[in-house]
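Please, structure for the following, as tokens.
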Amino acid sequence: MISRSLGAVRGALGFLTRLPVGYREGDWDAFRTTPAAFPIAGFVAGTLAAVPLLAAETLAAPTVAFGYLLSVYAVAGIHHLDGVADLGDALVVHGDSERRREVLKDTTTGVGALLSVSIAVVALGLGGLGLADLPVRAAIVVAVSAEVGTKLGMAALACFGDAIAEGMGKQFTDGATAGSFLAPAAIALAVVALVRPPLAAVALCGAVAGVGLPWYWANRYLGGINGDIFGAANEIGRIAGVHLGVIAWTLS
């Protein structure tokens, strides 16, 4: 049991980040059937990505924000942005659900993809600028909680989502059940309690709500989710969590 749990975490870190954890046989299957690994990977990735924020009170805010942006993509990679790109093309195409699903699978990069990726990167950079204006501890709390929250949202996609076709998304949805969401939810709540509960809760809930946006759209206009929606949800959730966390601190 312990060995499988460790394998699930290795699989999550190997898939969701660029960290050199190494894959072992069975890690992928352990990960896709263990939704609790999502927020654990989010905590690790969020903590590492937040390192540049330690300089929030010593360096200029734009420099810190740029460092945070680079750190996020250095730790988490850019492969999830492919989901944002495909979602962007599917958003702007005219046609029914079948046509939109075809566009999701199309490897051609359209205007919708370019615009959506640009907006996502700029939005995260501006979120980093907001973090750089916060006290160091508050900035780190928001960044880590947003990362845990967006991974909790991905766990919810796996546990409650309906896949529209064979592929990575279906591997997650087939490997999880509604009941298996209890474990990732408990881990996320533990993180909130461990750091700064009010602020962490806002950032975490904001990230989960951000994941809900592409999920809702996919259910309505595609008939379900796929791997691209998982990737897009990861990016959108992080952005929403960071911005709402900054807003919460500013208004407190």
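Residues 136-160 form the longest helix (25 residues). The chain has one domain: 2-251.
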